[in-house]
Design brief:
The protein has 434 residues and is mainly alpha-helical. The chain has a domain of 268 residues: Up-down Bundle (Growth Hormone, Chain: A), CATH 1.20.1250. The chain is built from 17 helices and 2 strands. The chain has a two-stranded antiparallel sheet. Helix 3 runs antiparallel to helix 4. The N and C termini lie far apart (54 Å). Its main location: membrane.
Length: 434
Amino acid sequence: FICSYMILAPLFGYLGDRYNRKMLMSIGILIWCGLTLAGSFTTQSNFWALVLCRALVGIGEASYSTIAPTIIADLFVGDKRTIMISIFYIAIPVGSGLGYMLGSGVMKLSGDWHWSMRVTPCVGFLVLLFLIFFVPDPPRGASEDHTDSPSSRTSWREDLKCLCTNRSFVLSSFGTATVSFTTGALGFWAPIFLLRARDINGFTEHTSSSSYDSLIFGAITCVTGVVGIGIGAMTSKYLKKKIPHADPLICAVGMLSSSPCLFIAIVLAKHCIALTYFFIFLAEIFLALNWAIVADILLYIIIPTRRSMAEAVQITICHVLGDASSSYIIGAISDTIRRSQPTSSYWRFVSLEYAFLLCPFIAVVGGALFLWTASYLEEDRKKASQQIQGCLTGITFHFGQHTSHFYANEKTRLESPCALGSDGQAMDKERFQD
């Protein structure tokens, strides 16, 4: 699923910047729901059909995740955009948390895991109807009075080149990858880690299955996502009025604060499960501060006609360096450590505990990346703002003591003279075009 998601995201990013976005999202949701439902009917004899269905579900998420934020960006601007993006990104932890809880609950009630995959497609088809009939598809850049015309679009290669030279985008994307690495490792390994901790502590009533810890961890993920994203959005709204580059600083504080919480949670697991849950709760709140803020950063440092591509590139970076690799890396480290000692329940726990200690270190790296982002943010935001207004790529000519600056704005070029001489006199249209 993650492989197809991160491979197809750039394709949908390219399409989302050029074609009907509602149509692309609708197709994606239809594929998403249809394949999830189809996967629920697979049996043990056709296991590879289940693998194929799960992999192709990435098509749906790749289409939706790259395009939906750009529509929100075109409907709102400023503080309203920050709030609306936050509401949108609250769905990520809420959905993840409900996934743990609903999957575990439905499987217990039905005694069959197939039924846990038949609930969400029903909700998805309902959402598809709401999308088709109630969600508008505004012109790209509508909230910023930007004209979305074919002449304003560039090639895929040019888009990618511009994104790679945008230092705030690159650094914040790698910073987001560290968030994804940490949350991905927690999501995959935390229930198993807590199950092993219960085992060595003698809590045998829950050691036969990880569903108990999955249920609790799902509830924690759901609550911390809502709380963390809400705190991040409100803090950003307040601080940006006083500190222009507050957003990456908030992200840095979130990552650096999550690191000691993760470390304490990991170390305490063999002594007190309740305290471990408490510090995981705190760590996830600090990690959740980042989600909506990073999305907002992308929207104001990238021009409207490149935002879907930017979302796609950021998603690819996040998954390749984040949750697509973190669960494997943690598992590989744990296996390597465990081979050096006799097999026992205690050493199975300790090997995973040592492997998990990579997460606090990665969180510190993420904090450093966001601090680095802060040093370039204002410059990149001004460039994007000027380019949206058609005044970024100017050409300056020097004629002895006279200097003229020409703005690359098609609308201005056709409708009014906008080139000014060094004395402030406007040049006529013929001289401008010449």
